[in-house]
Amino acid sequence: MSGIPGTAVVQVTNLSSAVSSEQMRTLFGFLGDIEELRLYPPDNAPLSFSSKVCYIKYRDPSSVGVAQHLTNTVFIDRALIVVPCAEDD
């Protein structure tokens, strides 16, 4: 179901600047077992930004297709955009 065969990574964009990595882990953790989560800029960034981006790597690639269903879900104050992403760092 994901756009990139075999990928276990999703990119989540259009995130509110108020979102934390713990909130993202809680929301996307319901969809599958998270191996790694990276939020940019990180929670402890000294500067403020208008939006953030998050990369989530699941242990099971089938969770990517499920996560894509959260696209257009309003989280805090913005509609999420969830797309599969190639796994190269």
TrEMBL record:
* Natural source organism: Perca flavescens
Gene3D superfamilies hit by this protein: 3.30.70.330
Tell me which GO cellular component terms the UniProt record holds: nucleoplasm
Domain RRM span(s) in chain numbering? 12-75
Question: Which PANTHER family does this chain map to?
Answer: SERINE/ARGININE-RICH SPLICING FACTOR, SPLICING REGULATORY GLUTAMIC ACID AND LYSINE RICH PROTEIN 1
Output this protein's name. Answer: RRM domain-containing protein
Q: State a single Gene Ontology molecular function.
A: RNA binding
Pfam families assigned: RRM_1
